[in-house]
Amino acid sequence: MSRKSDFGKNIAIFAPVMAKTRINNNLEIEAFPEEITEDGIKIYGETSYENQIATLSHYLHTADFKGSYFDMQKQRNEMVSLIREFLRHKNKLQDYTEEEIYHVAESPLEFDLFRDFYQVPFPSPKTYDHTFIDLFAGIGGIRIPFDEMGYQCLFSSEWDAKACQTYFANFGTVPFGDITKIPATSIPKHDVLLAGFPCQAFSIMGKMQGFADTRGTMFFEIERILKHHQTPYILLENVKQLVGHDGGRTFKVILERLSQLGYHVKWKVLNALDFGLPQKRERVIIVGFKHKEDCDAFTFDIPHTPYNLANILESDKDVDPSLFASDHIITKRREKTKDKNVFYPSIWHENKAGNISILNYSCALRTGASYNYLLVNGVRRPSSRELLRLQGFPEKFRIAVSHQDIRRQTGNSVAIPMIRMVAQKINQIIKNREHETSETPRLKKAVNA
Questions:
Q1: Across residues 73-95, what is the average pLDDT?
Q2: Which long-range contacts (CB under 8 A, 24 or more apart) does 101-105 make?
Q3: Residue-wise pLDDT tens digits, 308-333
Q4: Distance, CA of 277 to CA of 341 (rounded, Å)
Q5: 199 is catalytic
Q6: Which entry of 153, 199, 295, 363 is annotated as an active-site residue?
Q7: What string of DSSP letters covers 289-308?
Q8: What tens digit of pLDDT does each residue of 409-432 get?
Q9: What pTM was estimated for this model as a whole?
Q10: How far, in Å, CA of 32 to CA of 76, rounded?
Q11: Alpha-carbon distance 368 to 350, whole Å?
């Protein structure tokens, strides 16, 4: 790790970092206290160093140090404290003087110290007009379309450590941990709330316990944050089974709660197959607007894009040999499909009953599926890159974990082209409102042009 050796004596400790923003970033480590047991034992987990590094990474990308002298001093001291802790864990604290640490806090871009935070495929925009928060962030699938449009992510939350590892490798920020332990007051004010809240509680592949499952109650965490911030725009994603769960009563509760918070809502079940992806993945998309005319202007009238399985497949010679099925599995598959129309390229899908379907697309990627439920051309499992392509992740998206982790992460993620089309419509509505063209007929024409 290299660093600058001569900083000079005159350091403007409280000079503002250059960034265009309309809000204050109020992430402070004191909002994420250590958990203490009844015996006074400090619990090491997402409320400890992990949250400190999350705070530091968010500061590096979003902090503007604006406001009163007291506020700027408090934020600067916060960042200095976090950098000191970061250096202590990296065993580099002894290499830096206090003056140098303050200078690092002043101009972090000048130092290789934070290279991994900045040299990422999806860096934060240097200037921006709109902001969002990324709840139940996973590996950032819902975030990417908003990054593409130049929005700034002010806060992200994800409890899974491996997903956080992938998220950091691609966005340079470490998500905060368990959202149930984070006060709404500690989350910065934002324009759009994104949330692919946990779907296992409503999934047909699970027990479909809904709100009886603790994962199903995560919607109420979204409600808690919306109640405090009154976020102008929301985009939520879940499995299609949410709509019919418990005879439709679960979904009715969600829509009623959003309405009580003042949101005008539209929703629709969309299929990834219609967005150029060779994956049958049906998900309910919920959008919400504080202004009724904005909601009236929004439609799910989105032109379908054809898919081509060949476009996402890698050559067998480039695929890890460990992904090829055993001779026994291959022979068994061929025996079960001897009377079927076999074509290539194709994905052979085995359902729970043992039936084999030969398709020109993949069935929905699943987190807990058997290792061999999808076989490319009946002989091998999809590679990590192919799994990411099936969800529409850009080629520059970094793989920072094992193949097993990627299987789980893509099974939990979203079809990015689906989110992109919805995000672009929301963005157009936001822009037209800012330019005072929000009369419904005119706005609808502009949004759906």
A1: 85
A2: 102/11, 102/13, 102/76, 103/4, 103/7, 103/11, 105/13, 105/76, 105/79, 105/80
A3: 999 999 999 999 999 999 999 999 99
A4: 22
A5: yes
A6: 199
A7: ESSHHHHHH-------B---
A8: 999 999 999 999 999 999 999 999
A9: 0.85
A10: 18
A11: 14
